[in-house]
Amino acid sequence: MPVLKQSPYLLYSDGKGNIYEDTTLYATGRSGWDALPVPYAEWIVLPEGGSLYELPGRKGIGIDVNTGEMRLCEKGWAVAAFIPPAYTGLFLAPYETGPNAPTLPLFCYTAAGWLNEKFMVPAVRIEQDIRQESKGYISDTIQEGVSKFLQSYPHNRLVKHLAENCCLTYHCPAARNYFMGRWECPVPTSPACNANCIGCISFQPLDETIVSTQDRLTFKPSAEEITEFTVPHLQTAPYPIISFGQGCEGEPLLMWETIRQSILEIRKHTDRGSININTNGSKPDAVRALCEAGLNSIRVSTNSARKHIYEPYYRPNNYVFEDIVESLKVVRGYGGWASINYFVFPGMTDSVEEYEALRKLIRETDLTMIQWRNFNIDPDWYLGKIGVHDTGEIMGLKQLMELIREEFPTLKFGYFNPPAERITGNFEMDFAH
Ligand code: SF4
Asked: What's the rounded mean pLDDT across residues 409-415?
């Protein structure tokens, strides 16, 4: 897309779900606590699968097209975009929050604007893999898969959970791919967690101002239940991955013995595909035991490469930031693929202090990949909860990515866990719907 010759116009809503452009104001972007002009080159058309949110009790901040002054839009509520997987947002939606504004639910709030009859967002496509593109999900095929697998595994509580909750209720992209017999299959295992993340998507305390986006698993699956449906998936699916650690559970490393037993059993039947764990990385010894058993890759989630930003958010029980660093090192020590699930927050992620910490983390762990994920959280609520009033000097997310790419040319950028073909290096991106 050619670089814009002007900024898009600001969007506002009437509070009834109708969205309008305000042609007296150019759209801006938020970084940390500040509203800033967005470079023309960083705007793209809102990708398919994206959606727009009206933000109750908030007024958008724009630049007056005549005076060039920054001011509030008094015409209605602010608007933000939820951008689809595989894209990383470069600026948050800028607004002034009113006194009685409710806390926003656990979604990402990227800046948005309107130009040339199109909704625009400041974002980059960080991943070419198409596995979670909305146009690839065919509901009839998914429904057939659900019926077929429920019949094939009538006593399997995990397949029942994946079908009824994950696929048909939460519309989880990974679960829908499983029931379409392709790519990454989710394997939740843990009803408990040893962290207390402020923005946990599977558990929120009753006295909190928001609710979790999905309910946490309520049972501990057995190794037999796990092996029963994952072996056929690894044997038959294109680019197969099975991934422990999903949004509908606590921390999988608390179930490491069952996972270890499962990996050993699975590898008796097939050496095809990749076995991955998405985790908070809290237990390096358990990670070592899983690597011994045959784990191929790990993805450790983090909101920051800085201990004093990580721990106020994760509020860990009996582990510390250094443990997650150690878990990444352990997997690299076994020659495995180690990613961070990096919660991107404009103004925090691209601060100079974070950049220095990220460089140190990449070097120290010999990291394989950064998955640049949009942070699904109310920006004011997050910064308030971790006590950040000033995010410090920033460099811009695009520049941060360029500097990291330059310094670490073999480090992969993306959004999804790699199939075995990518881990072993003979991989052409020829995914097709
Ligand atoms: S590590 Fe995961 S499950 Fe545990 S509190 Fe954090 S988000 Fe929730």
From this structure: 97
